[in-house]
Amino acid sequence: MKIGVVLCTCGGTLNIDFNDVKDYIENFVDRVEIVDFLCKNPNLKGFKGFDGIVFACCSERSSLTFNEDRMHETAKKYGIKFWESANIREQCAWIHDKADATNKAKDLIAMAVEKLKLSGEYLQFKPLRKVLVIGGGVAGISCAKSLADLGVDVTLVEEKPYLGGSACQIPFLWQSEGFASVCTSDCVIPVLNREILRSNVRIFTSSRVLDVEKVDGNFRVKIEKSPRYVDPDRCVSCGRCSEVCPIEVPNPFDFGMTKRKAIDKDFRLAMPDSYNIVEGCNGCGECVKVCPTDAINLDAKAEIVEEEFGAIVVATGLDANRDVLKKFKLDHPKVVTLMEFERVMANNFFGDSPTSVVFVLCQKDEVGYCSRLCCPITVKLASRLAMTKPETEITVIYKSLRTYGRAFEAFRRLAESRGVEFVKADVEGVEVGEDCLIVKTSEGEFKADYVVLAEPLIPSSVMLLKKLGLKLDDFGFPLEFQPRVINPSESYVDRIFVVGCAKGFKDVQESIESGRAVAVKVFEALKGKEMKYYSITDAQKCSKCGLCYAVCPHEAIVFDEVFKIDPAFCKGCGLCYATCPSRAIKLVNLEDEQILRMADVAFRNHKGARVLAFLCYWCSYAAGDLMGYYGLKLPPYRSIRVRCSASLNPDTVAKILLEGKADYVIVAGCPPKNCHHIWGNYIEDRRIKLLKEFLKELGLEDKVRFEYVGVAMWNKLAKVIKSVYSKAEESKSEKTVRKEVQAKGYE
Question: Count of alpha carbons within 13 Å of 40, Cβ hemisphere only?
Fold first, then answer.
């Protein structure tokens, strides 16, 4: 391999003797160039035809101008196949004196060269330009429409016969977080629906996802299309079928509080604009006789569709947890949930106007979290009810009212001005009186014609989320890829995105915003990727133990006679690599042999205590960079940037210590609950504890240390390095004195 090194003087900031470094590096590479401000003018013409290059400059992790993405682009531009970097600025020139920084720069570059010599092929993958959107609510519709506008082939799957989701059941939707007003869903939902129906999105209503598997980097999905007894392409919504239908059934759109015919529309503005048949139809055929377009087929069968997609968007919305409301032990038609009360108001109380309504908040203690929307929904309903029925006495009983933002606070004040009473109290129960309901509280009793209980919101379709391989939190909501603040809506499974209420509590506007925003991320993911780090399996060595499958947080491993890694779904975390007892897994571009070779040359130009720190790719390595940014001064340790801390094999650490490649090893992973690979930091912490037990017999248990270090914990990392270096120096001094004493024959 023909290897070159480019030395950027900006990286040394005059604290490195670059000529000395160049003279040293020229002994084992083919070309060395010293340049000024590589980030401003990355000219590598002198390295054309080279196989690999080492960028000796600022941090590939934390540089604001020349990070690893730019390094990759630069190398690729000049036809250089492989590249590595040596951080001679943040963790070298900025934290050591000139002599130590110069010697460390020599070693860091030598380490990068040794790693580069064993480089493996970078993975290139481009998924199918097809997206499956699961869920036809406002978030799913918005995402599908935006993707279609970007030229992507989109399939939308919705379990209900109509599009729009729960938003269709809400008569009035608030318009924005900054304006306390509402807009009718009879306006909003048809506008959204007609846009999606006019697009080139393929829509499957009355359908569900049966199975999902990963095949060659894409998703193979099995979809069941329930029988459409009414062909929406032929139905003209004349309503004759419903007129002659002899069967009435409870209408699920109104939560069973009204009736509908067995063949009917779910609601007047349902789209697609077609009638449908529900459970309860007796197959009498009267509807078939009167249909003017022959749109009805009572013998229709379910259909299974199997297709492959490059990405999946989950927009399955929320459900209501009615179980916690059972604590009131009352089954009464006028004890309803917030969503049910929306339909009660939509149906004008079925002609029986109430004289009093009591809203009861909240159930967060029972479910363990705040559903966020309950308070705003309540003040919206209370305010509107007070406006339309000023004669009705309205009371809101709450524990801690949370009307977040400008609009909802304005709604609350508006409700108060209209006579709504807000009472802070604990609800003890609901009872049936002679002519009304009685709500018993710590502040007294309240009479009501309707008692409206705020139902806690819970994730919908949890079984589907598990089928997709998504990692869920304690409450069943999908976890977003860490760091969540810059990876919103990305799940831990590559190219599966979660939008709208499927990822948490959002109102209609926020759900639409979420769907449209994520469409851009999906579009970018479909462009494909080039990966430097990824794992692959040697099927001949696999013992089928399944440990790799158990530790993989990204669902990149499947079982097909042996356990296999699909590199297209691999995040390159290396958890499987360090876990495999059969050594059947290869972590391309960061294997044990590369680490050992780096350790071999890490201290060639250093005579003091040898402290080697393994810093995880995202958190602790960035903390190491920040030590330089904040001007700390440290002893000349050496560091190796690993993937997740759990990609580091404890055997490799043991070999480094036993073979005397370093005096002390620090392993630093992400802080608790913040690992980019969910549990990698915990796994490595446990491994190091076990390693220390093994090293105990050799008296080396104090020579390795694991620490949880977040990006902002640079000061902690500095203290650990100083402490360890001090111990290593003391130990080295003791050994030196002992050798001198032995040499003089005094022992």
Answer: 7
pLDDT given for residue 747 in this prediction = 45
Query: Are the CB atoms for 593 and 151 separated by under 8 Å?
Result: no
Is residue 736's pLDDT more than 70?
no
Please count the helices (runs of H) and the strands (runs of E) in the chain. Answer: 21, 38
Report the C-alpha gap between 242 and 322 in whole angstroms. 32
User: Which H/E stretch holds residue 564?
Assistant: strand 562-565
Q: Which residue, among 76, 220, 147, 212, has the nearest Cα to 526 in the 3D structure?
A: 147
In degrees, to the nearest 5, what angle opens at C-alpha 17 toward C-alphas 13 and 23?
A: 135
* Structure-token pair, residue 593: 């042999």
- pLDDT-derived band at 735 (thresholds 50, 70, 90) equals low
Task: Report H helices in 16-174.
Answer: 18-25, 68-77, 98-117, 138-149
d(CA 210, CA 226): 12
**Separation of CA 548 from chain center:** 21
CA 621, distance to chain mean position in Å, is 22
Task: Please give the Cα distance from 222 to 398 (Å, whole number).
Answer: 46
Comparing C-alpha atoms, which of 206, 253, 475, 247 is closest to residue 364? Answer: 475
**Letter for the amino acid at 317?**
G
Hey, what are 675's tokens?
Answer: 């690992």
Q: Are 257 and 350 in contact (CB under 8 A)?
A: yes
> Structure tokens of 635?
């002893």
Gyration radius from the chain CA atoms: 33
Q: Using an 8 Å Cβ cutoff, are 475 and 469 in contact?
A: no
| Average pLDDT of the chain, as a whole number | 93
CA dihedral 370, 364, 461, 265 (to 10 degrees): -90
Backbone angles phi, psi at 470, to 5 degrees: -70, 145
d(CA 369, CA 172): 26
DSSP 291-331: -TT--B-TT---EEEEEEESEEEE---EEE--GGGGGG---
CA–CA dist 382, 395 (Å, integer): 8
- Give the integer Cα–Cα distance in Å for 220 and 7: 48
Residue type at 272 in one-letter notation: P
Residues in CB range of 248: below 8 A, 6 or more apart: 259, 260, 261, 262
Q: Return the number of other C-beta atoms located less than 10 Å from residue 331's C-beta.
A: 7
Mean pLDDT over 57-75 rounds to: 94
Question: Rounded mean pLDDT of 342-357?
Answer: 95
Spatial distance between the Cα atoms of 724 and 608, rounded to a whole number of angstroms: 13
Three-state secondary-structure class, residue 354: coil
Give the residues across from 441 on adjacent strands.
427, 444
